[in-house]
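As a warm-up, study this chain.
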Amino acid sequence: MMNCIEAHGLTKQFAGRLALNNVDLTVGSGRIVGIMGPNGAGKTTLLKAILGLTPFGGELKVLGRDPWVSRDALMNDVSFVADVAVLPRWMRVSQAIDYMNGVHPKFERAMAEGFLSKTTIGREQKVSQLSKGMVAQLHLALAMAIDAKLLVLDEPTLGLDIAYRTQFFESLLHDYYDKARTVIVSTHDIDELQHVLTDAVFMDGGRVVFSCDMTDFDAHFHEVAVKPSDHELARTLNPLHERHSFDRSVFLYRNADVEKLATLGEIRTPRLSEVYLATISNQTLAQKGSPK
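Now compare it with the structure written out below.
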């Protein structure tokens, strides 16, 4: 099966600064990929390149097409919600559905109605009458109702409270995802999204600094809380990161010998956010020329 996205040496420069710095990224079809990173890491620029919204250096194919050259054709198979997306305040919800039904050949009204039925949004309400969270829900319902091969979401749950965020991720997994569609999500809601993802990608400084198939996450990453007398021994096993917690230090490992780790203390699987924080912290220290 053809990969959904193939990027090789992808670059983008703004005012002398590399927003994308030699990015290599392959996304298979039927994956749910979370792209995470601090502000200014290059996440949104990468999404814009994938969507054909900005020119770029290097090679990039999306659904087999160059998105900058063949954007019109590509958009027939792509759905997108930006973090700054807006709807006319005078428009009623029913009019937004009618509009999408008229302009996009792959919009499925019944699917949009199904997503909205799980909300408190009224069909005759105007956008101006909706809360910020309800507007976000409406955007998502309209985007997910397009029968697209690729769905791109830039901070899709921005403005939603935790109940709505949980509902959205569950809907994405159970009502939208069918193992044929590919979903790319840029988000800061790392732990809430972890159970949905098939792949995680961390960006920092315009680069991809980490990638992981989430089916292998539990097998590769381990944390151990180590008492002070064993700290030096723990460090000989090449931890990815070390943090202090009360009277012990917590050591994070990738691909370490589990039998050796067990001699240091109780082993647990870290959250994805903990691996993220460790990775970004190490990147920051490396950029400063400090030891890990």
